[in-house]
Each structure stands twice: as C-alpha cells, then as structure tokens.
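Appendix C reproduces, verbatim, an entry submitted by the partner laboratory led by Prof. M.T., so that reviewers can inspect both the input and the predicted structure.
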Amino acid sequence: MPPSKILGRLPGLRHFIEVAQLGSFRAAAEKLHVAPSAVSKQIKNLELALDIELFRRDRGRAGLELTEAGEILLFRCASVVNELTIAQDEIDQLQGLQRGHLRLGVNEVLASDLLPGILRDMGYNHPGLKFTIIVENTREILTRMQDGDIDIALGYNFPPSPEIETLATLQRRTYVVTSLDHPMARLLSVRIEDIDGEKMIFPDSSIPMRQLLEDALVQSDVTVREIMSTNSFTLLRQMVESGMGIGIVFGRFLQIRREKIAFVELENLPFESPPVACCRMAGRTPTASSVAFAAAIKTLFANYGG
C-alpha cells in the first residue's frame, strides 16, 4: 500500500490502537470522546484498506481479541506513534524558537565580550525570538535562576551543587592587559614578578577574582600600586586603553569591538583561573531557546583558543 494511503488512515490507526489496548469499542469511544459507531467505522475502514481482519469479533462478552495481523499492526504502530511524538516535539521546539523568549543571566565581562556575537546570530536565524538579558554577578544570577526569572546562565564561579546542571565549560588563560604603547605590549608572555611596581587597575572586592589576585601578589612577593578599582571590566579595559595603568583579566574574547589594548599571557601564577560555565537548573524542562543558546555556546567553546 502506498505511504500516502497509509498516512490517510492515521485516524483509523489511532482508533485501532485504543481498541487494541482497551479491548473494547465502547471503552475506546469513551476515551476518544466519540460514538462507539464512529470507532467501529474507523476500524472497518482500516480493515478494508488493509484487506484483512484485525479483530476476532466472535468472542461474545469475553471482549475483542487481535488476529495475528492485528498483533503485527499493533507492534508496528508503537514505532509509528513514537516517531510521531518525536516529530511533534521537534515541531514544538521549532515553534518555540520562532516565537520564544530567551531569558539569560550573564556576568558583565562576558556580556560585553562574548554575548553580542551569539545574540546577533540567534536573532538573525530566529527573528521572532525575544531576549531578556540580566547582567549581574554570579551570586545574583544564581538566585534569579533558582527563582525562575532566568532560564540559563553564563558566568564564572558557579558553586558545585546537584541543583545546577553544567552544560559547557571553558578554561581561559590569564592575561595582563596594557595600552599599546606600554613596554610589555610587545611581549607574548610575562611572569608575575615582571609586574612588580606597576600601576594597577583592580576589580573591586565584589568580584572573586580580586581575592585571587591579592593572594597571588602576596605569595609571589610582588608589590603594585593600586590606582583604581571597579566592578566593571569594560571600564577597566577602557582605563587600560587610556594608559592609566595595567590590569589582569581572564581570557580575551573581544569579538565585537577591538579595543586598542595588548593581551600578554601571565605565567607562573599560584592559582588556576576559574572556568566560564553555561548552566541551568537541574530537573527543569529547558526551553527551546535555551537549548539553542547552549548549543551555540558549546560550539564557541570548542573553537575558542583562550
């Protein structure tokens, strides 16, 4: 029988599955909210199309019994129903991307460096998608994610927890950032001792990186002159670009705006830089838009060099 004719009998297949599983035309009719005669007609049409009986109808009050052909059809229908369910889920996900809403929490440095390119591409591929982006520190992002205000998070220092599902991570290198006319700008790498005596722009104490840097300087017996602290890495890099001082950062995305600063890898540190992580709450059904965002992050991380 041609596939087009089989597809045309899908209502009959649905009625057949219910009758076979419930063992009664009446029970199937009640579940499907139709008259028993309608169920009987659908089954009869299906039998005529297949040119074979699917049920033995001579069992009286003992109920219906599948014929051998009916057993084969029921077995095959299980695969059909499963594939149709998967198809419906995929269609729903596609519609979710067409009309969906991405609610994202992200650290400030990633919001300015990494995020614009990803959102630009997602917006181009899915023009009906709406974005809500919350730029906050990791602690606030975690709280908002637990409260259901955001669907997915991107940032540093997410605490290990069974509540948090980590979708992708990226270990980034640590760099000294300088203006282009600074003597270190021509170097590929420096040791922490090489920044002794430098004027320094620090992240402020609200950012965990601050304590890492202070501990590293003490352990290495290195003294710098703090001339500024800020909770904004965008501002930190702008002040570095102006020549006000040097800074230390994790990674070097800068995908959209190429700032006039040099990245010099910082070696022999007494700590390992924390990874960037893309996370969501475990046990919650992910939205189609958050699944697409996570896939884009995984691809970027796989291709990123530090």
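Residues 1-9 have pLDDT under 50 and may be disordered. Additional entries are available on request from the coordinating office.
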